[in-house]
Amino acid sequence: MTVTELPSAAPVADDLLRQYANVATSIVSDNLDRLPGAVGLLPFHAGGQLLGTALTVRTRRGDNLAIHAALRIARPGDVIVVDGGGDTSQALIGEIILAHAESLGVAGFVIDGAIRDVAAIKASKLPCFARGVTHRGPYKNGPGAINVDVAIGGLVVHPGDLVVGDEDGVVALSPKVAADILPGIRAQEEKERLKLEGFRTGARLRAV
């Protein structure tokens, strides 16, 4: 069976990526009315923010032919977002695919499905989010599609979306929406900073 491949969307602008560096997914979520965002996916890598442009993949459950096809067109900074139907019976990626992606400059993976070789993934700084773990490997028969709208843990991700992930989870949003909510994000970051600073100062004063 074949993999349908549509042209990649324009990458998210470098300036917008810089604006979102180190922004917590919780704050992004709050400024999206706490509605969008993937649920049920966990980070498995050594730590660090996931940030980049969505390169979307839809695949048959337990089959990673389309993921290999996506790696052939992946650009530095792309996040490979895989709609595997939430199935955890077969792993869609493991250490070899992760190493291949890292050599291409891929920014990370979001897998609505399972992964394997978790020890190697946990030692890697390449961000990898997934629904589960299994030792059972994938089929490579297809079908699949690349650069189509996908659903990841209840979150619809469009090709070219800005993808942000951290220890709390993953959110994705269009570059336009990402730019529009930046003032609200900055205001919330400052509000929370002042509140935390006040608590710390107050705790020190009470201890004196």
Automatic annotation (TrEMBL):
Report the InterPro entries cross-referenced here: RraA/RraA-like (IPR005493), RraA/RraA-like_sf (IPR036704)
Cofactor dependence: a divalent metal cation
Pfam families in UniProt:
RraA-like (PF03737)
The record, for NCBIfam families, names:
PRK06201.1
What the entry lists under PANTHER family is as follows: 4-HYDROXY-4-METHYL-2-OXOGLUTARATE ALDOLASE 3-RELATED
What name does the UniProt record give this protein?
Putative 4-hydroxy-4-methyl-2-oxoglutarate aldolase
Species of provenance: Aminobacter ciceronei
